[in-house]
């Protein structure tokens, strides 16, 4: 059986790129979708239904991805070895103006959903003892001081990935980040849009991560198309702790 990629945020520009990469590697895909309309959008942009199973869940809820993992454990859905996560929405309301309710909503979509995906899938991936990976896409907005609440949520994802990479240092799970400092759109949208990278091109970065088993605890940076030919790789955690940590 070929490996399977579980895709969270599967129907977005980045999710489609991850699915195209998985299919190029001849992996099957288990894609979490909001509803049938989102599933149809996914098939339209991927250009095929082959090798892709969809399952409906609300990934913004604590038990959304968990309910999918539970169904996998029960044998109702295909087993998976790899996870891609890129749930989010561009909400650039300034932090100084956003209401607390809107802040919580934006953080829920942009951060919590990806954390829930990590929390629900890591124990399952570890149990299986198979070569596995968890890859999260992040954006560069906070490094430019832009993006309002979305920028803040991306910063929280940077920290989550550093900790997650360390937590999985000695496990079978390769935690990696794709740090995207460029614009990626569905192929049909990127066509003729100045400066936009097609999802099928961006897929090369995901393909590299899936294929290169030495990539673990890495940040793969994509500033533009040239970074898709030879991956720009750095360690997620470069410092070692010199202070004794509490037990
Ligand atoms: N695209 C880029 O160029 C780019 C660059 C840098 C960073 N990023 C980051 O990468 C992530 C994904 O970007 P993208 O362009 O793929 O975004 P997208 O096309 O808007 O897709 C985001 C995904 O999140 C889901 N989603 C959004 N709001 C939701 C909600 N309230 N409930 C459930 N699901 C929800 C979408 O589902 P539906 O399809 O059902 O709406 C979709 O699967 C974001 O965090 C973004 O900041 C993207």
TrEMBL record:
UniProt keyword annotations, A-Z: Oxidoreductase
Record-level Gene Ontology MF annotations: oxidoreductase activity
InterPro entries cross-referenced by the UniProt entry: NAD(P)-bd_dom_sf, SDR_fam
Keyword Oxidoreductase belongs to the record: yes
UniProt keyword annotation of Oxidoreductase present: yes
SUPFAM superfamilies the record matches: NAD(P)-binding Rossmann-fold domains (SSF51735)
Xref: Gene3D superfamilies: NAD(P)-binding Rossmann-like Domain
Coiled-coil ranges from the UniProt annotation: none
Taxonomic superkingdom: Eukaryota
Family, similarity comment: Belongs to the short-chain dehydrogenases/reductases (SDR) family.
Protein name: Putative short-chain dehydrogenases/reductase
Organism annotation: Neohortaea acidophila
């Amino acid at each position: 059986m070929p490996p399977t990629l579980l895709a969270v945020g599967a129907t977005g520009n980045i999710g489609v790129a991850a699915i195209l990469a998985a299919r190029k590697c001849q992996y099957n895909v288990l894609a979490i979708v909001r509803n049938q309309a989102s599933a149809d959008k996914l098939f339209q942009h991927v250009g095929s239904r082959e090798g892709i199973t969809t399952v409906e869940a609300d990934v913004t809820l604590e038990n959304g991805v968990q309910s999918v993992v539970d169904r996998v454990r029960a044998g109702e859905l295909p087993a998976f070895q790899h996870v891609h996560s890129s749930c989010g929405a561009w909400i650039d309301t300034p932090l100084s103006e956003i209401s607390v309710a809107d802040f919580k909503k934006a953080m829920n979509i942009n951060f919590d959903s990806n954390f829930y995906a990590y929390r629900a899938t890591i124990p399952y991936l570890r149990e299986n003892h198979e070569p596995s990976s968890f890859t999260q896409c992040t954006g560069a907005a906070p490094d430019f001081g832009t993006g309002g609440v979305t920028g803040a949520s991306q910063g929280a994802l940077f920290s989550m990935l550093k900790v997650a990479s360390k937590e999985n240092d000695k496990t079978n799970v390769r935690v990696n980040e794709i740090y995207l400092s460029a614009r990626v759109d569905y192929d049909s949208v990127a066509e003729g849009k100045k400066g936009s990278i097609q999802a099928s091109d961006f897929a090369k970065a995901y393909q590299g991560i899936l294929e290169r088993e030495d990539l673990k605890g890495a940040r793969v940076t994509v500033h533009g198309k040239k970074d898709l030919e030879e991956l720009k790789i750095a360690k997620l955690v470069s410092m070692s702790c010199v202070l004794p940590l509490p037990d």
